[in-house]
Amino acid sequence: MMPPRHRSRRRALKLADGRTIAFPAVMGILNVTPDSFRDGGRYLDPERAVEHALRMAAEGADIIDVGGESTRPGAREVPSEEELRRVVPVLQRLVPKLDIPVSIDTRKAIVAKAALDSGAAIINDVSALSFDPGMAEVAARGRAAVVLMHMRGIPETMTMMAQYRSVVAEVCRYLRSRIRAAIAAGIPPSRLIVDPGFGFAKRVEHNLALMRGLPKVAALGCPVLIGFSGKALRLGLANAGERERAARLAAAEVTAVMMGADILRVHDPGLTSAALKAAASIAGSIRI
Ligand code: HH2
């Protein structure tokens, strides 16, 4: 394992509305979908979805990420009307009840626009603004922070595209080009977040290489978001009981922060924030 990073990094993300998200931050996942990795079908009812989000906030989430389209391997694209029907009622109920920022996990400009109009502050786009040509403008006009994630192909086809000579270098090259495109579209660099996209057109060895390469991803100069949840198989965490998986996941998350991650996208914010707090109290000055 590489030594922890001591050089100074941005310690917070400032949103256009003046709020700041201090790092390391925990992003709680709210999947309003029938077919997601873990919560598929559980939170289709907006009241239940809101309840779950409020619970995640109480347990330590710093951001809630609302998604209405599954992006697991093989998942089909959801028509925008359906995605809107899933997420807008949730956002409209949730945002007024939360004092932490909400992000919208979508590749579609029309969904992002509706989400920003309903109070979301961050666009989490797994296609890094490349799926929908209108997305960059929506983000720029809406003064949203934007997560640019690396993947190849689309969820339906991405597993076939998991071939790299040097996954870390290729992911960094892609993210650099998407940062440039976002800036050219009028999104200030201070509002950009990058994500190497664990499990998106990646095999176990690629995920592990990216984990070790996180300092290089962080060196791109933007805060780094990572998501392990639901992807234990592709981190080499298969064949473990529930308790052991939780322990390994928490260890992976703490390690990721030590290696350069700033925001962890998770299903169980309580577990993650407890692990981060424990690590910080032990490690003291090494910026966890
Ligand atoms: N992973 C998923 C969805 N969105 N966004 C970012 N930035 N990074 C990720 O790693 C990421 C993401 C997939 O995980 P999940 O939401 O658990 O499942 P599903 O896509 O089936 O809803």
Fold and architecture overview:
The protein is an alpha/beta fold. The chain has a single domain (25-281), classed as TIM Barrel. It is 38% helix and 15% strand. The protein is built from 9 helices and 10 strands. It has helices at 46-59, 80-94, 109-117, 135-141, 167-184, 204-212, 214-218, 242-259, 269-283; strands spanning 12-14, 20-22, 25-31, 63-67, 102-105, 122-125, 145-149, 192-195, 225-227, 263-266. The strands form 2 sheets. It has an 8-stranded parallel sheet with strand order 8-7-6-5-4-3-10-9. Strands 1-2 form a two-stranded antiparallel ribbon. α8 links the parallel β9 and β10. α8 packs across α9 (269-283). The chain is globular, with a radius of gyration of 17 Å. Bound molecules: 6-hydroxymethylpterin-diphosphate. 6-hydroxymethylpterin-diphosphate binds next to β3, β7 and β9.
